Structure formats: C-alpha cells, structure tokens
From TrEMBL, chain A:
It comes from Frigoriglobus tundricola. PANTHER family: HYDROGENASE 1 MATURATION PROTEASE, HYDROGENASE 2 MATURATION PROTEASE. GO terms for molecular function: aspartic-type endopeptidase activity; enzyme activator activity. This is Hydrogenase maturation protease. One of its GO terms (biological process) is protein processing. Gene3D superfamilies: HybD-like. It holds the Pfam family HycI. The keyword Magnesium does not apply. Belongs to the peptidase A31 family.
Automatic annotation (TrEMBL), chain B:
SUPFAM superfamilies: HydB/Nqo4-like (SSF56762). Its EC number is 1.12.99.6. This is Uptake [NiFe] hydrogenase, large subunit HyaB. GO terms for molecular function: ferredoxin hydrogenase activity; hydrogenase (acceptor) activity; nickel cation binding. Ni(2+) binds at residues 67, 70, 515. Its cofactor is Fe cation; Ni(2+). It comes from the Bacteria. It comes from Frigoriglobus tundricola. It is found in: Cell envelope. PROSITE patterns: NI_HGENASE_L_1. PANTHER family: HYDROGENASE EXPRESSION_FORMATION PROTEIN HUPK (PTHR42958:SF4), HYDROGENASE-2 LARGE CHAIN (PTHR42958).
Length: 164, 541
C-alpha cells in the first residue's frame, strides 16, 4: 500500500498517553517512540498524546482505527498487559467539575465520539500496561520496560500484517 | 487541614491520574460572606530536583511535560533561559516562529477555557432568577449548549498551527538554543494563515463578538465596552454580549478583587532587538511589555527582585530566596503542619521599592494592566482599556474574564502579522557554543500568566533550576509576614448565596484559571462546622 498524502488521515493511529516524568506512567509515550524508531508500517501513524487529554480526541478525526496505549493501576502484577475495547470504557467526564488536567483517555474517547460524530473511529482499542511505580523522575521499571517491548512487537506485527 | 483528592483508582482497570496537583481551598464564612481563605496545593512537584545534575538542555524536554495544556509556554521560557545562559544567536525568523507558536497555544486556551471551564458555572441553579439564565443554559450547558459545541470544537484549531511548526502539540520540544527545529515551507505558512482565519471568522467574530476584531479593539475604556454591548443586536446577542449583561445582573463585577497589584514578565520578542538574547536586554526587546503595577504606580520588571517565600510551604526553613539561589528541600507535610505550613506551593513575592516584598497577581488581567502603562516603544503594545477598567470598576471576576477574552483579538492580530513577516529563505537556527558555565533567565506569558525559569549551569551540568509558574504567583499561601496570596485575597469578601454550593468561589478560582483541581471546604465561622465539601474542576497551570 502506497503512502497517502502527508496530511491525509492515516489508516491506523497509535496514541501513547501518559507523563514521561512519572516513572511507569511513561509507558505510552515510550511505546510510540519505540514503534517510530523500529519503523512504522505504511499508513500507520503515531502520536504522543502525553497529558493533553482533550487533544487526543482531536487527533482521531477521520481515522478508522485508533490504538491507545496507557499505563494503569489495577492491582495486578506489574507489567501485565490489558487489551480493552474502547466502547467498554468510554465515559464522559463529570459535567460539574470538568477539568482539563484530569481529562483521561476514557473521557477523551467519549468526548471524541461527541466531537467527531461521523468522523469518530470505527475501531478503538486500548492497551493498558500495569505499573509498578509512578515516582516523579524515575525511569521505567524493568518489568514495565519489558512489557512495553512486548506490546510494541505485537502491534508492529499485527499492523504490518494488516491483520487489524 | 484537608484530605488530598486521590487518583480515581477504584475501578477494576483504571487510567492513572496525571501529575497535575490538586488545590484544596479552605474558606471561612461569616453571615454568608467569606472572611478568610487558605489555598493548599496538596501535591508535591519536584521538577527542580529531577533537573539537577542533568544536561543543560534537559529543561527543554522536562518542563513542557509539566503541563498538558501549556507545554509550549514551558518550552518557550526554557529555551530563552538557555539562550541567555549560552549567549546564543537567534535568527530573525526563528524568533517569529517561536512567537507564532506561543501565541497559538494561548489562542487555543481562550475559548476552551471559557466554554469548557468557566461558562458552565453560569448554568448553576443559583442564577435561575436571572433573566439571562434560560439563554445561558441554552448556550453554555456542557456538551449540549449551542455555543459550547462550536466553542470547544473550534478551540482545537490554533494548535494545529503550533503542530505545523513544532511537529506536535502538546509536549513539543522544537525550540532549541539558537533557534527552532523546523524549516517552514510556503504551504506551511498558507495553511497556518487559513487555519487562523477560519478560527477568527467562525468563533471569534461570528460567535464571541458579533462584530469585527477591529470594532472590538476600538474600545479604549470600560464605558466603551458597556456601550459596545448595546450598540446593535449582533453585539448584544453575541456570547460576549450575553456574558457581559448576565455578569452585571448576577454580580460578577462585585467580587474577586484580589491583591490589586499586578505582574507581567512580558512575552514575544521583536526579532531584530533580541538576536543576542540577554537578561538585561529583555525588557526593551519585548512586544507585550513586562512590568509591575502596585495599585498606584508602575515599575519596571527586574527578575532580580523576585523571591520565593517558603514560610508556609512544606519546605525546610523559612527562607526568602531569589530563584537562582533557590532550594527545594521538601519536608513531611505532617511535620510541616506542626510549623504552620499548609501548601506545597511556594509563595513568590516581588520587591517593590518602598513597599517591600509584595504578592502580585499574574495572568491576562495583569498583562492588560501593564499594557496600559504609558511610554511604550514603537514596537510595543500600548492598550489603555484594562487599566481604565480596574480604575473605574475595579478588578473582579468579570474584568478578569474580559481581559482574557480581549487577548483573543490581540494575539490573533500578532500571530497573523508574524506569519506574513516570515522569510522562508532566512536561517532558522544558529548552532550555539555550549558553554560549561552560565546563568540564564527565560520567561513568557502562558495563557494563565507569567511563567519563568532560572538556570545555573556548572561544569556542563544543571547546578540549579527553578520554575516559577503563574499558578504559584496566584495561589501561593501566606508569606512570612502573614500576607495572603492573590487568590486567597480574592475569595475574601465574596458573598455566598448557598453554602452547600458556593458557586461564587468557583467563579473566583476559575477566573484565575489556575491549574489545580479544587476541593472547597466551607466552614461556618460561628460553629466551625463544615458546611460543604465538593470538587471544582479547574483550568490550567
């Protein structure tokens, strides 16, 4: 498949969310950087969503498939990977008390459905990586670092095969 | 004093809360009027500690991650801190690109803040008796309001321009000492112009103003603004016209005064005057000027007069240090509480000759007050409107909001002009000498106020790095002389209609657009009983 115009929406958009200053919360942004370094399949684009929650929604316009990568804290073994269908976790932020800083990707998904309407992706999947620590200034923990690699390889294979 | 809001980790699989920091606010209410207030930043942020010992350029990567909303502003001041420390050369067009990016980030923030954060409170049931209430609900109700939707949707446009030059927004690091990491093409420039013109036409003129930018900017006094709102139906029925009329009806012009003294460190450089950035040459090269207004007189801004007071902050000791000498030695907040400390925010203060160290409000109102100072150079902004506003009606929630919205017109005009001045054949980068020793100061005006970095480089590494944010200027706690910070002072005097739902307090907090999630605890002064406890979402850093 040949590359489309540089400003045309890609076929797949991978968005890494999280704060690189906070230990394992960096998993999302680090994952999209590693994918970029390894070479993206055609028509796949990466975005660093960082902590700008609402803008994650703007980036999804017109993209059929969106993959979100984020850290999570569920009490599971650190480095555990979760795959969650977007529809299951969409929720609008509380109306009283909307806050641009606590605007998380589950809010971003619901917000994007409202914002983009017909241009909302038909397929949204979130991959979550269980954290060990989120200490300010700390690097990725070894188990989370390994989980990021596992996820990056898995996604590159899947997206490269066009299996998604 | 109060409990921290914890990240919402209760669901089985839950995304983490981000590093933003929470604000707990304690207010004392006596016969329905706020009589005292304390702001408590309840999360520790140790960016200064992260940066110590790192490569001097680490600030360009780390500080834009402090915030997901004004990361570009963090980058802008971080790069100037290094430019001054390394004594770089910044090409003409690189300065223009930096200016354009900084302005576009602020343009994005204006409608997003108004519709997603501020205007929601106008639909509070407290105002049901206002004749404007039904219209406010129709327009400003979250997600379904007729103005909310286009306002929020169109707010995303200006940062598309940032991303064209910066590669991405948020969290770009494309400004580097000696210039920027891009070489714009003609199509980048024409796309940027069309994006900004679309934003101006569809939101700023059509929805917010109901008139042209030029007509709005012809307002030079507060009386002009009031007359403007009655001039014709388009203006009267615009979002701005409705907001003005409703605010006067519900009394947003009556409270939220603050400390009455203002700071702008200024922003945007006239390229030919700042090709060799220095700390000393900064004021003269600014387009939007720096300055201090103490309520009676203007003073030139001098970074040497800034201090951070930690008497009531959870840090060791009670020092009052200049940021170059600043130390960040956190202590256990339980230990801090025993010493009368109650916040993780430091209290920035400014030495005004004859007045000592005083708190200063930062933000759009401060910038616009400073813009009213006579004596602007030819390349500098002179705008008397908001100096007149605070002298005639006084600072208030209403005036603070209007100052923020006013800047949409001014920053649009600037960004549009700079796009036209870009010389695509110019250089965008001059490779600097990476001096092993140096001292730098970089500052800008983020959407929500003055934002500055002070850096000391020794042996090629960061020896000291201090970030002073607009939020610290505004929400800092009591200082060593027990003088309240600007936001604390703003709450005092507010009349609370319903202590179980003190929307007035939300208005004050949001008018500053501080970065923090707010938990408000209202205490009855007589019984000491806690009357209400609820969360208020806040704007940005």
């Amino acid at each position: 498949m040949s590359e489309t115009r540089p400003d045309a929406p890609p076929r797949v958009l991978v968005i890494g969310c999280g704060n690189i200053l906070c230990g394992d919360d960096a998993a999302g942004p680090v994952a999209v950087r590693r994918m970029w370094d390894l070479g993206l399949p055609p028509a796949v684009r990466c975005a660093d969503g960082g902590t700008g929650g609402m803008d994650v929604a703007f980036q999804m316009r017109g993209v059929p498939k969106v993959v979100l990568i984020d850290a999570c804290s569920s009490g599971s073994e650190p480095g555990t990977l979760f795959e969650v269908p977007g529809r299951e976790v969409e929720q609008l932020p509380p109306l009283a008390g909307i806050n641009l800083h606590a605007f998380r990707w589950d809010h971003a998904l619901a917000f994007a459905r409202w914002l983009l309407k017909a241009d909302y992706p038909t397929d949204v999947t979130a991959y979550l990586i269980e954290v060990e620590q989120t200490k300010i200034g700390a690097p990725l923990s070894p188990r989370v670092d390994a989980a990021v690699d596992r996820l990056v390889r898995r996604l590159l294979t899947q997206l490269g095969d066009g299996a998604v | 004093m109060t409990s921290t809001i914890l990240p919402p980790n209760t669901k089985r699989i839950s995304p983490l809360g981000r590093v933003e920091g929470d604000l707990d606010l304690n207010i004392k209410v006596d016969d329905g009027v706020v009589t005292d207030a304390w702001t408590e930043a309840s999360m520790f942020r140790g960016f200064e500690i992260i940066l110590k010992g790192k490569d001097p350029q680490a600030g360009l990567i780390v500080t834009p991650r402090i915030c997901g909303i004004c990361g570009g502003s963090h980058l802008y001041k971080a790069v100037y801190a290094l430019d001054t420390a390394w004594r770089t050369h910044v090409p003409h067009s690189a300065t223009l690109v930096r200016n354009i990016a900084q302005a576009c980030e602020t343009l994005q923030s204006i409608p997003r803040w108004f519709y997603a954060l501020f205007a929601i409170d106008l639909t509070n049931k407290n105002y049901a008796r206002s004749p404007y209430y039904a219209e406010a609900v129709k327009r400003f109700a979250p997600f379904v309001g007729t103005s909310y939707e286009p306002g929020v949707t169109l707010s995303g446009k200006p940062v598309e321009v940032y991303a064209i030059f910066g590669g991405q927004w948020p969290h770009s690091s494309f400004m580097i000492p000696g210039g920027v990491m891009c070489a714009p093409t003609l199509s980048d420039v024409t796309r940027s112009i069309s994006i900004l013109e679309f934003w101006k036409r569809e939101w700023l003129e059509k929805q917010w103003l109901g008139c042209s930018i030029e007509r709005w900017l012809a307002n030079k006094t507060w009386a002009d603004v009031l007359a403007w709102a009655d001039e014709n139906d388009a203006q009267r029925n615009s979002d701005c016209g409705l907001f003005l009329r409703m605010s006067l009806d519900i009394g947003l012009d009556k409270f939220g005064k603050g400390c009455g003294a203002f700071l702008a460190t200024g922003t945007y450089f006239q390229p030919e005057l700042y090709e060799r950035p220095t700390v000393e040459g900064r004021n003269a090269a600014l387009i939007n000027r720096s300055g201090v207004y103490d309520g009676a007189e203007f003073h030139d801004f001098d970074q040497a007069n800034v201090r951070e007071d930690i008497t009531h902050s959870h840090y060791k000791g009670s020092s009052l240090l200049h940021p170059w000498d600043g130390v960040t030695e956190p202590i256990d907040p339980l230990e801090g509480a025993k010493q009368g400390k109650y916040s993780w925010a430091k209290s920035p203060r400014y030495l005004v000759p004859g007045k000592g160290q005083i708190p200063l409000e930062a933000g759009p109102l401060s910038r616009q007050v400073i813009a009213g100072r006579p004596g602007a150079a030819k390349h500098q902004d002179y705008d008397p409107l908001f100096l007149d506003a605070i002298r005639t009606v006084g600072p208030s929630v209403l005036v603070r909001v209007m100052a923020r919205m006013h800047e949409a017109c001014k920053y649009y005009n600037l960004a549009r002009r700079w796009l036209g001045e870009l010389d695509l054949h110019d250089k965008f980068y001059t490779k600097p000498t990476e001096h092993a020793e140096g001292k730098g100061f970089g500052s800008t005006e983020a959407a929500r106020g003055s934002l500055s970095d002070w850096i000391i480089i020794k042996n090629g590494k960061i020896e000291n790095y201090q970030v002073v944010t607009p939020t610290a200027w505004n929400i800092g706690p009591l200082d060593g002389k027990n003088v309240h910070g600007p936001m604390e002072q703003s709450f005092i005097g507010a009349r609370i209609a319903d202590p179980a739902d003190p929307v007035e307090v939300g208005h004050v907090a949001r008018s500053f657009d501080s970065c923090l999630v707010c938990t408000v605890h209202t205490y009855d002064a007589k019984s000491g009983r806690e009357l209400a406890r609820f969360k208020i979402g806040e704007g940005a850093r």
